[in-house]
Fold this sequence. Notes:
Layout: H1 5-15, E1 18-19, E2 34-36, E3 39-43, E4 47-51, E5 69-73, E6 76-79, E7 84-94, E8 99-105, H2 107-110, E9 114-117, E10 126-135, E11 141-144, E12 148-156
Antiparallel strand pairs: 1-7, 2-3, 3-12, 4-5, 4-7, 6-11, 7-10, 8-12, 9-10
Amino acid sequence: MILSDASIRDYARSHAMIEPFVEAQRRDGCISYGLSSYGYDARVADEFKIFTNVDSAIVDPKNFAANSFVDRKTDICIIPPNSFALARTVEYFRVPRDLLVICLGKSTYARCGIIVNVTPLEPGWEGHVTLEFSNTTPLPARIYANEGACQFLFLRGDRPCEVSYADRAGKYMHQQGVTLPKL
């Protein structure tokens, strides 16, 4: 079952599931964020790791070279054509044992050829969510910090899981900041 706005608000209060939590959608001249009918639109923070191939590195998920990125702290991130950047959510998430969280990119970015990718947040996981922005266009693309980036959907299981992400001591538990791949 997908959680409604009222249920998401209840979990946010009782489990500190999303911090900071914005009670209603905000649009005031920005890409919207906050609680929506059946989801929560999270914001992208002002910390970015922009992919660069200056050193002709090979992309290897088992041995990822941190020097493949340029770090930027900025209100507007420019992603080069056909490239990507990593960022994180402003919000810190704590996923209860009976929920699985799925994320989809905002349509405002999708309509510009910018894809937001996030893997599911498993029961028991907590931390800042690392976001991947792919610029699929042949032009530079802008990402706006502290504005909406993606929508999280909360799915309740028929009962709490037997083994959570926390129980397995998952490698991305309690992540702070933008987190690179780990093996």
